[in-house]
Amino acid sequence: MSNLRAIASSPWSLSIHLFLCLQIFDVLTTWHGVRLGLQEASPFVRFLMRMGPLAGLLASKAVALSLGGFCIWRERLRVILWINYWYTALVIWNLALIVSR
Questions:
Q1: What are the per-10-residue average pLDDT scores of the chain (101 residues)?
Q2: Amino acid 27: pLDDT
Q3: Cβ distance 64 to 23 under 8 Å?
Q4: Which of 12, 14, 40, 95 could disulfide-pair with 77, CB 3.0 to 4.6 Å?
Q5: What is the structure's pLDDT at 6?
Q6: d(CA 88, CA 101)
Q7: What is the secondary structure of 4-27 as a DSSP string?
Q8: Angle value at C-alpha 59, between 57 and 64, nearest 5 degrees
Q9: What pLDDT is attached to residue 7?
Q10: pLDDT value at position 13?
Q11: How many structural domains compose the chain?
């Protein structure tokens, strides 16, 4: 538990917070895009969306948060940093598709 407190007060705290915010932005932009008639590009998320669009998105975020939590637990915080770059690009892509619609 003291390791988690040390991480929370470390410079990595911003990366972890950004990771969580990007997950929320990804759900919101993907959900909005799907409501506009856009298709999900990820085969994995598309498969999960067979349960229903919102249920599939939330299931994919549960997987993402679990993997993020695993990275934090294993103190692989640099992986979180690289994942943040990916999700930033993904959210920008989603926004570009929404705006072009």
A1: 61 88 97 94 94 94 96 91 96 97 85
A2: 96
A3: yes
A4: 12
A5: 62
A6: 20
A7: HHHHHTSTHHHHHHHHHHHHHHHH
A8: 95
A9: 57
A10: 85
A11: 1
**Residue holding tokens 């990820």?**
42
Q: What residue numbers bound the domain in which 68 lies?
A: 2-100
pTM of the model: 0.85
Backbone φ and ψ of 28, nearest 5°: -65, -45
> 59: which residues sit within 8 A by CB, 6+ positions away?
48, 51
Other beta carbons less than 10 A from residue 88's beta carbon: 14
Q: What single DSSP character describes residue 101?
A: -
Cβ burial 46-61 (10 Å sphere, 16+ → b, else e): eebbeeebeebbebbb
Nearest Cα residue to 57 out of 76, 81, 80, 38: 38
Q: Which residues, 6 or more positions from 73, have their beta carbon under 8 angstroms from its beta carbon? A: none
Q: Mention every residue, 6+ apart, whose C-beta is less than 8 A from residue 88.
A: 22
